[in-house]
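Cross-posting from the modeling subforum.

Setting up a comparison between two proteins and wanted a second pair of eyes on the formatting. Protein 1 (sequence, then structure tokens):
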Amino acid sequence: MQSKEKTMMCSEEVRVRFNETDPLGIVWHGHYIVYFEDGREAFGRQHGLSYLDIQREGYVTPIVKSTCEHFLPLRYGETFRIDTIYVNSASAKLIFRYEIYNQENQLVCTGETIQVFLDSEGNLSLYNPDFFQKWKDKMEL
């Protein structure tokens, strides 16, 4: 049985910067989390759900969980592609999965982040904020 759920994704090409490498000449593992953020930012711009859009609605979306698995290294000067996939959830949260591919289209790293909605007073939203539900409806999720 095939899933009828819509997949929303964004691909972004990035070049490894010198300051992101360690003495071994490979990207330090902590920078992959930054690459995930690059992917989320690109997704937000492409699909109308940027951090600024969320902030204008009176919310912030802190990360409460992140995972990252490494398979191959990236090196200074290489370009890579980060695919950011939105995972639809009935809960009031943002879930993104990430796949990073090197120039040879080999899988370098995978990961996931989970973000929750906090209102301007820092209260956790247990239900989807109105603006987010409207976005999901518009995206047919």
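Protein 2 (same layout):
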Amino acid sequence: MSSWIRRDFDGIGLTQSPPGAYLPKLQQRYAGHVLLCIDVSYSMAGQRLAQAIAGGERFLAEAAAAHYESGLILWSGAVQRYVPPETPLDEVVAALRAARTDGSGTRLSNALVLGIDVLPNYPGDRVLCIFSDGALADHARSRDLARKACALGIRIIVRGLGARSAASLADLACPGVPDDNQQIDDAADVASGIASMATGLSIRRS
């Protein structure tokens, strides 16, 4: 189960059978919304991108099974594609499979601005899950935006390929949330690394 998934195992109380008018509110409280943010800069061309797509598909499938609605941000020097969290899963997967690399750099701040703009509009747990294979060209601005996102209650989980990328992204993760899997050591492990944002259940109280 996903390491970023927030769960509270307290009961939510008795409800009517058949369900009453308050069921949608209860479902919203215990659901979540996640944006999977995948680096599609030029260095991701070839096998790295294929691995990222495979890992992203596994991630999205488990998110859906855990009652999270998932969106997608493909980013490089700018946001290349955005798919909102309420989009049907098959359409999100199709957008991921259609990902292509470009040569416009590795600047995450535009994706973070988008996440900060849209995620507060959704109920429940809000999460940004970010993967990159390089150090951020806009590290200082991305760090400031990440702190803003965390202050808004948006959780940030990161995976970086190699020590340099992992160190650059580690500054963005919300403080006080331990994560021993931020670094992906080998390009052959990109798929499992992205899917490792779905390797255990994090029990956290709302």
